[in-house]
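Work Package 3 committed the consortium to producing structural models of liganded targets before the mid-term review. Because experimental data for this complex are still outstanding, the team generated a predictive model from sequence and the ligand definition alone, so that downstream docking and mutagenesis planning could proceed in parallel. The input record is reproduced below exactly as it was submitted to the modelling pipeline, together with the SMILES string for zinc ion.
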Amino acid sequence: MRWARSLSTAVLMVLTALALAVAVGVACTPQQTEAVASRTPLRVCATIFPLYEFATRIAGERAQVSLLLPPGADVHLWEPGVDTLRSLGRVDLLIYNGAGLEPWLEKIVAAASNPRLRLVDASEGLALHPMGGGEVHGHAAGEKARSRGAQEPGAYDPHVWLDPVRAKRQAANIRDALVAADPEGKNFYSARYDALARRLDHLDFLFRTVLAGTRHKDFVVSHAAFGYLASRYGLQQIALTGPEGEAEPSPAHLAVVAGLYRGGGRRYLFIDALHGGRAAATVAREVGAEVLALHHLAALTPTQATAGEDYFSLMEENLVNLYRGLE
Ligand SMILES: [Zn+2]
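The resulting structure, written out as tokens with the ligand in place, is given here.
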């Protein structure tokens, strides 16, 4: 681990807890069963990486799970291609994030013309942060229970999976959709969901415990993807670009952010490698800030994908980096 040399005692404690969590997660993973030998696996497609991982962990060998957004893609700029449309022709369940993240959803479903295709809104029932107003400054004014089917891009902050508590609800929605599509697998899916839910609970516990004691409570980040995470743990994100992925921050906004570094006290700037990194790197140079990574995880970077990183390993790295940046 490349940051191992600079770890403080507290961070080592986090890592010990993480190691235990991994052991628990392994111990709780249900044994594979022989129940699926004779049936055709369900074909499931998830739009973004976290939902793909949750579906894979819950469905096991009862489903073939594929992922739409390729490694390295910026979720806010990506457009589905011909291959996507072709692959959806054979899919039973399409799991999407919702909350306006996938403005191309209707288009690809119509183009797939697959009467068997069922749509699963993973954010069903989640409280969402409305977008706009002071959002770029990281302050979500309030939460609003989403109205059913609210899909307008730009109405809500879509980055719900970065809050472990909301992520657990997304996993439950995925479990329910798998059970509805394949009722015989109910016990199988439920047991595997329970194991995943325990890991998400533990992740939430770690974030709560580690971040409760930090000296600083706000952080500057290249991409406003961390609003749910921040508000869950009593923090505030100050983002260079908005949650919808505006290309470049305005000079006026850059000046405001640069001003936050004057007078000392603030040393770090967080960069999300897949969005807004270039403008943020310029700001970091100008103000002399040290750069730390925060991963938004809608897609992995190609390096992370090759290294076999997953939702938990990267959220744990997010936690270690947040702790360093806020302590
Ligand atoms: Zn985003």
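Reviewers should note the following from the model. The chain has two domains: 40-206, 214-326. These observations will guide the Year 2 experiments.
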